[in-house]
Amino acid sequence: MNERFETMLNWVAHLPFLAEQKISPPLSASSDASFRRYFRIQVTNREGGGQGELSLLKGGDSGVENSYIIMDAPVEQEDCRPFIRISEQLLSMGLHVPKVLAQNLEQGFLLLSDLGSQTYLSAMKSASESEVDRLYQNALTALITLQSKGKKIANTLPDYDARLLDTEMNLFSDWFVETHLNITLDKIEQQSWQSVKETLQRSALAQPKVYVHRDYHSRNLMVTASNTPSILDFQDAVQGALTYDAVSLLRDCYIAWPEEQVIEWQRAYFLQLCAVNLMHKNEWSNFQKSMDLMGVQRHLKASGIFARLNHRDGKEAYLKDIPLTLDYIVSVGAKYTELTDLVRLIDTKVLPRMSDLT
């Protein structure tokens, strides 16, 4: 048991509303691509307990076991304040997200409500077509809620501007192409790459600006008994392009669906956008292209992040997710002449080099 883990346990044990409770040893709940870790604890009300906040939250019945999540976010690498602030905003919109029950910002610990352990990704591996469709329709409806109700407060978030879009795409060239594949772009390829980035930037910045979760996909959505998914990992929310979260969901880096199905969900989402006046029905074709180009930007970023997670953070498992991101880029890029050079680069240099590494 390391010193930080002991510090975390001591903090939880001394929370006033847990003082008379029996707390189980923390078990790993999940980890993500950041430096954050999550632990699940079971808390049992002892006989004669239930005098504090736990009693108010859960009714105070002795012997009742309740589950909580501890977020461990080292202050050297992570800042818990955006998580707390955005959690409050999303809860105010009626979305299902973890509630912050206790906080220690000096040491980087939060105690959260537990939203369960079944992600969309795990559920869909054994779900029927109709069940998958229901999950996606629910996720898209929740996204509409985020975008429509969040419209008035989106400007309180960091702006998903040209600089940030460019920084993200440079992860592809810096970490994936140069570091992971050891490929050096020649002068013409560098010029083409710059042109591609500018095309994707222009498209993203031309879209209506909304509240963007920024990582809205099957690993960050939890199955619930209701029709509303629980939403996790929202602390990096920004004000940005309308289609960003939708393409993150529909062209997920961790699971793929037939293009006909993606278009069907895309159409359903578009009609919901029209219903809340975020789109107009005569904008369908432009909407499709905007989402396509937004997806290419995201998948360029994702492939770079996966490579960085391997080389910088020692998280090799993410390398297996790179091929799907490249498949998306090539299949979508083939539809647009302005992405021809990018598709050529991947087909002629990136994919052959990846084959050499396997």
UniProtKB/TrEMBL annotation:
<keyword id="KW-0067">ATP-binding</keyword>
<dbReference type="InterPro" id="IPR011009">
    <property type="entry name" value="Kinase-like_dom_sf"/>
</dbReference>
<dbReference type="GO" id="GO:0016740">
    <property type="term" value="F:transferase activity"/>
</dbReference>
<dbReference type="Pfam" id="PF01636">
    <property type="entry name" value="APH"/>
</dbReference>
<keyword id="KW-0547">Nucleotide-binding</keyword>
<protein>
    <submittedName>
        <fullName>Phosphotransferase involved in threonylcarbamoyladenosine t(6)A37 formation in tRNA</fullName>
    </submittedName>
</protein>
<keyword id="KW-0808">Transferase</keyword>
<feature type="domain" description="Aminoglycoside phosphotransferase">
    <location>
        <begin position="41"/>
        <end position="270"/>
    </location>
</feature>
<dbReference type="InterPro" id="IPR002575">
    <property type="entry name" value="Aminoglycoside_PTrfase"/>
</dbReference>
<dbReference type="GO" id="GO:0005524">
    <property type="term" value="F:ATP binding"/>
</dbReference>
